[in-house]
Amino acid sequence: MNTSQIKHAKTISPALQNQNHDVPTAGHYGAEGTYNKVASRYYFPGMRKYIAEYVKNCPDCNRYKPSNQKPTGLLRTPVYAQRFETLDIDLFGPLPETSSGKKWIFLVEDTSTKWVELFALKEATSVNCAKTLVEEVFLRYGLPRRLISDNGPQFISAVMQQTCNFLGIKQDLIPVYHSQANPSERKNRDLKPRLAILVRDEHDSWEEKLPMIRFALNTAKCETTNHTAAFLQFGRELRTTDDVTHDLRALIDNDNFVDEITPYLKRFSRLTTEIKDHVEQKQDKRKMYYDRRRRQAFYTPGDQVWVTLHPISKSQNKKSRKFMPKREGPYLVITNRSPTTYDIADPAKPDEVLGTYHSSALRAYELPVSRDSGTIVPLRRRGRPKKYSADSSPRRRTSQRGSL
């Protein structure tokens, strides 16, 4: 930009904005970098605030630049429920096909006791999942009130929805790309290394190892409840080859069974309340540490937001995820399902919900700043600022930075 252009600039034009931030030679720098570039040539009232807003709302910066802020969304802890009142489900696979043709593991966990059931499936279809739930879980432990799952096609299918509706079960789907909302994801992480250790080089032998893995998971002490899932499920620990005494069977064989079992049952009843308090204390502690790395963000129906993408590199198409947009939008907030989850839709089709997203995957969208008018004053590069007399106008006194 030459000197004559600076001298005759009268307004903050789109060309000026574009030249100092948007063009390739400007490089889409942040608020401070853009401000330093503009401030070296111009001055206008509220310049720093205006530039910060302009950069913050730049569509390209929002699409491609990473965020340096804390993720949004504070931790929401679940309410402690009765046994087999809330179940979470997930699929693990596909795995090497076994001799019986199985390729998937269907995992079902009770969120209260942490009791786990593992089922080998030939195909991960909605019919197989629904049939396994009804025949192997519901008819054994009773109907739950709530079923938590991710957005896999097997769980959002009409078959699963109709099954839950018919049986009076509330189906809760976790937000898209937010797997930590599903408790069974942690069990999946525990399942993988344990299976790997047992199968060794015989990768197609995983099915016969499932009973042993299930036993290990259900007899391991849980840090949250401070007890094993087996104890919370049956009121006693499962007997192993190392246990020959001090179990419930020894009490039954005793002549004083009634005298001894009565205080035992009373203790177990009190223990249920103690476990609930222990779980809540653990949840509060976990929430305190989790929220230190998070910040709150609230959206209301009608707000527009950017949605975080999860691109995948495609070498055959010469596409790298490093150069792909990190966000897409704007999208419309339709409903807020909870303080941290929202239903999102395309503004052109507000009746078609695209999915439920966690607030950490959203960023507020604001229209790009437009400042079509407003006086700017070129800076004086050399010499001292002009001195004004007491008769000078207030407008001139506020423009004391001078001109080139």
TrEMBL record:
Residues 395-404 have a biased composition (Basic residues). InterPro entries: Integrase_cat-core, Integrase_H2C2, Retrovirus_Pol_polyprotein, RNaseH-like_sf, RNaseH_sf. Its EC number is 2.7.7.49. Residues 1-20, 375-404 are annotated as: Disordered. One of its GO terms (molecular function) is nucleic acid binding. Gene3D superfamilies: 1.10.340.70, Ribonuclease H-like superfamily/Ribonuclease H. One of its GO terms (biological process) is DNA integration. It is an enzyme of class 2 (transferase). Residues 74-238 form the Integrase catalytic domain. This is RNA-directed DNA polymerase. The lineage of its organism: Eukaryota, Metazoa, Ecdysozoa, Arthropoda, Chelicerata.
